[in-house]
Structure formats: C-alpha cells, structure tokens
TrEMBL record:
The keyword Protein biosynthesis applies. It comes from Russula ochroleuca. Component of the eukaryotic translation initiation factor 3 (eIF-3) complex. Belongs to the eIF-3 subunit K family. Keywords: Cytoplasm, Initiation factor, Protein biosynthesis. Its main location: cytoplasm. This is Eukaryotic translation initiation factor 3 subunit K.
C-alpha cells in the first residue's frame, strides 16, 4: 500500500470510523463525540488518521457550539509529525475565528499556542531540527509539553522519525554530533537509537554511515534527445526570418 493510500485510508481505521469519514454522515454533529474518542485513541496508541481528525474540525466549523480547544490542539500536535504531508496546513485551514469567540469557562489555549505550533511546523518543513528542539524545549512551550505532548504516546520519537527520513534522503555519512542535534539525543541514548535504526557508528571517528537508498545515491543520468528530421526542419524554418 502506498503512502498516499495509507493517508486516505489507514489500515488501523475502524469500520465505524470508515463509514463516518467516507459518507455524508461525517457532517452529522451527533457523531462528533465518536470522532473525538477516536482522536484520543490515536493519541494513546501512536495511530494516526488525518481525514478523521479533519472531519472533527469541519464539524466545529459548521457547529461552533461543539468547539473544544483541547481537541484542536491535539489534532495539530498529531499533524506536526506528518511532514512532508500537508496535514498541519489542512487542519489550520479548517479553523476559523468563530470558535475563539465562544463563551467558555476556561481561557482558550489555542490563540497562544497556535503561533508556536505553526513555527514548529515550519522548522520541520525546513529541516531545521536543532531549532525545532530548542523551541520545543523552551519555557514558552512548557504548557504545550505539560498539558498536551506528554499525553501523546511517542510524540518525540515521531518527530525524530521525520528527521531520520530527511537524513536518509540526504546523507551517506554524518557526524554523530550533528545527527544527535537533529534527534535531540546524545551519549548512550543516541548510540542506542542508531543501533535500532540498523546504521553503523564508528566510535573512533564519530561518524555514522547511512545505508544506501535511492535518495542518497549519486547516479549519472544520460539524457538522449530523439529529434526526427521532419521536426528539425520545422525548427529551422521557424528560426529563419521571413524575407
């Protein structure tokens, strides 16, 4: 199954959710609780279903009284690790200003967190992984860590997987210190992570060898043009100015 097919219909999606996401019933506001429960199942299990989460945001858009800011933040947090897929931007596009105007018993955390989440997503897209970890570990995002990402099983490792995909596509060899800055790991934790990846680490040179793959191999390409005489005659005739 291709990555796109898994994005459209994850193999872990339950049959009930499939019927909600694929049919007109996804616009039924009475189903929002089912979809929210499914989101929290994703948070606890490391599963991910973008279309189901987008369906929640669409219901909030049509029914502002259903709006739950914690659910929205969790959807955005799950979408962070989807780079290079456009899940985060799709989620933001379905959010509007009506929800923030609701009368709620507690302050809405989303307006304060959204700029930071957007910045984190941008840093991932740009492969600026050390900057991502610096911002993520900052005091400004203590609320995000303590109230949201701590609940998302495997969140930090899912971000590391984004970095690993970028490294695999770019490097054949990389210094362990540089790789550690991408993964926010050092020492024994970094060596254990490298071992789990199946990559070779030379402790004498502190160099990590990335296994060959189609993206990190340099291959020469010969481009052969096949131009027929009739086509060449037309090109020449157009190039000669009319007398």
């Amino acid at each position: 199954m291709s990555a796109t097919s898994e994005w459209v219909s994850p193999p872990t999606r339950p049959e009930l959710i499939e019927s909600l996401v694929s049919g007109v019933d996804r616009y039924n506001p009475s189903n929002v609780g089912i979809l929210e429960d499914y989101l929290y199942h994703q948070i606890r299990s490391r599963e991910y279903d973008c279309l189901a989460n987008l369906a929640i945001l669409k219901l909030y858009q049509f029914n502002p009284d259903l709006y739950n800011p914690d659910v929205v933040v969790n959807i955005l947090v799950k979408a962070l690790a989807s780079v290079p897929f456009p899940d985060f931007n799709l989620s933001v596009a379905l959010m509007d200003d009506r929800a923030s105007n609701n009368n709620m018993d507690e302050p809405d955390p989303l307006p304060g967190l959204l700029p930071y989440l957007t910045n984190l997503h941008s840093l991932l897209q740009q492969c600026r992984f050390p900057a991502f970890w610096t911002l993520y570990r900052s005091d400004a995002l203590e609320t995000l860590r303590d109230n949201y990402t701590v609940e998302v099983v495997g969140f930090e490792n899912s971000i590391r997987e984004v970095a690993v995909r970028a490294v695999k596509a770019t490097f054949q060899r990389i210094g362990s210190k540089r790789l550690g800055s991408y993964l926010d790991l050092e020492g024994g934790e970094l060596e254990d992570y490298i071992a789990r990846l199946g990559w070779k680490f030379d402790s004498s040179t502190s160099v990590v060898e990335v296994p060959p793959n189609p993206d990190n191999q340099i291959t020469s390409t010969v481009v052969q043009e096949d131009i027929k005489l009739q086509q060449l005659t037309k090109v020449i005739s157009h190039a000669i100015p009319a007398v």
